[in-house]
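Run log, item B.
One chain of 83 residues. Sequence copied directly from the ordering sheet:
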Amino acid sequence: MVTFSEENYLKAIYHLSKHGSVSVSTNAIAEKMHTKASSVTDMVKKLAEKELVDYVKYQGVSLTEKGRLTATLVIRKHRLWEV
């Protein structure tokens, strides 16, 4: 089960990675989410435990296949709500 906050982080990582397997810095995520980098690091570690992201300290975050699928489902759900 993914929380609302985790969904938002996955969505932000997905958009920042431009739909690829490019690593995204925690600072870039913090800027997009309007939060502190330390908060992002804590959340990224939680997402890594759930195997939704691959996190390498000082190198960034990338979505796993499971994370990419979850992010696309979240984006789809949000778009349906908008309609």
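Observations after the first pass:
- The chain has a mean pLDDT of 92.
- The chain is about 65% helix and 10% strand.
Flagged for discussion on Thursday.
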